[in-house]
Amino acid sequence: MKCSVIIPAGGIGKRFGSQVPKQFVELDGVPIIIHTIRIFDKLEDVEGIVIPVHNEWFTHTKQLIEKFNCSKVKEVIIGGVERQDSVFNALHTKTVKESEIVLVHDAVRPFADPVMVQNIINLTEEYGSVIPGLTPKETVKERNNKGMVIKTIDRNKLSLVQTPQGFWNDVLISAYEKSAAAGFKGTDEASLVEFIGYKTTIIDGDDSNIKITTQFDLKIAELIMNERNRTA
């Protein structure tokens, strides 16, 4: 089945505290977004990548794609106000419309394991909606708005969700259209799919598949990169 990847990169990095959006910050001398793109550039099953970006960073992104020869990036488009809007825009591109499976991956997750990604592609072909997740290591408690504990939640029933998230094209488009019509805002693509009543399968995620959101995350990313370079 034809597979495309959407990498929303429209964030401006308010929490990161940098002059440039976090996806353009360099890690080991290369912008984070390029590390992320390379994960999918090397996968045979991925036929095309679409990147929605903020209009102020459109030209810069195009220049990076050319500089680092990211051959599978077929379209760089202007994103929306929110991530959900950006992905919705990407779903209507020629690249995505011609695919049967769509992966959506955070631009600032540069360490996704290619074996895990391939597994998601394979299982999405069978199940239609597949996401990676990790069981929380810490005890999880539900609290009220005053900070009082209501109950302790069985963490074995919980999952900390990562990306990429894989879907049949028609399922994801339907989820976005119906969510938009209802005014529903989700925190990830799977939440929109759940909103329309479609079941999602969770597979084991990867501890190294971190999302770089803060300066502390960047320090962890540098440790991971140094370790990978040392063992390469």
Strand and helix layout:
Blueprint: E1 3-6, E2 26-27, E3 30-31, H1 32-41, E4 46-53, H2 58-67, E5 73-78, H3 83-91, H4 94-97, E6 101-104, H5 114-127, E7 129-134, E8 140-143, E9 149-153, E10 160-161, E11 165-168, H6 169-182, H7 189-195, E12 201-204, H8 215-231
Parallel strand pairs: 1-4, 1-6, 4-5, 7-12
Antiparallel strand pairs: 2-3, 6-11, 7-10, 7-11, 8-9
Helix pairs in contact: 6-7
Description of the structure:
The protein has helices at 32-41, 58-67, 83-91, 94-97, 114-127, 169-182, 189-195, 215-231; strands at 3-6, 26-27, 30-31, 46-53, 73-78, 101-104, 129-134, 140-143, 149-153, 160-161, 165-168, 201-204. Helix 6 crosses helix 7. It has a single domain (3-231), classed as Spore Coat Polysaccharide Biosynthesis Protein SpsA, Chain A (Alpha-Beta Complex). It is built from eight helices and twelve strands. The protein is globular. The longest helix has 17 residues, at 215-231. The chain is 37% helix and 22% strand. The strands form three sheets. Strands 1, 4, 5, 6, 7, 10, 11 and 12 form an eight-stranded mixed β-sheet that branches. By secondary structure, the protein is of the alpha/beta class. A hairpin with a 2-residue loop joins strand 2 (26-27) and strand 3.
